[in-house]
Write a structure and sequence with these properties.
The protein is built from six helices and two strands. It is mostly helical. The model has no long low-confidence stretch (mean pLDDT 93). The chain is globular. It has a single domain (2-130), classed as Response regulator (Rossmann fold). A two-stranded parallel ribbon has the order 1-2.
C-alpha cells in the first residue's frame, strides 16, 4: 500500500517495497486492492520481496512502519542508519508505529490503512520540499 501510494504522489521517484518477513507466494489480499482502488490506485502486479543489504545500499531513504523493525535493521546494518526512518517520525515527528493493516479487518483495517496513507502523504510532501 505504501509503495503504490508513494508512487502516485511522487511519480518521478523509484520506490521499492520490502519486508522483513515477506513471502513471494503470498498474494496481496483483496481488501488491500479494494482500499487502493477506492483511493484512485489501480491494480498492478506485485510480488512481496524480503529486504536485503542491496536494497539498503540502493535506497536514498528507507521507511519502517514499526519501531521494532527499524531497531532490527539498525542493529544489523548500522552503516545505513542515516537513511533509516520510522515513517511517522519522518512524516509527523511522532515516534509511533503505523500498525500494519494487512492482518486487520473492519474499522481497525480502515483506521490503520488511512493512517498509513496519511503518513506516506506527509512524507512525500517533505521529500518534495527537499528537492
Amino acid at each position: 500500500m505504501a509503495q503504490r501510494w508513494l508512487e502516485k504522489l511522487l511519480p518521478q521517484a523509484q520506490v521499492r517495497s520490502r519486508g522483513l518477513y515477506a513471502d513471494p507466494a503470498f498474494p496481496v489480499p483483496q481488501k488491500i486492492w479494494h482500499f487502493l482502488e477506492e483511493n484512485g490506485i489501480s491494480r498492478s502486479p506485485h510480488t512481496p520481496h524480503m529486504l536485503c543489504a542491496e536494497d539498503l545500499a540502493w535506497a536514498d531513504i528507507i521507511f519502517f512502519m514499526e519501531q521494532r523493525h527499524l531497531d532490527t535493521l539498525l542493529d544489523r546494518y548500522a552503516q545505513y542508519s542515516d537513511k533509516m526512518w520510522l515513517l511517522r517520525d519522518f512524516a509527523f515527528e511522532e515516534e509511533e508505529d503505523v500498525p500494519d493493516p494487512i492482518g486487520l479487518s473492519g474499522r481497525a483495517f480502515e483506521k490503520n490503512a488511512r493512517l498509513l496513507l496519511d503518513a506516506v502523504s506527509a512524507a512525500a510532501q517533505k521529500l518534495s520540499a527537499k528537492q
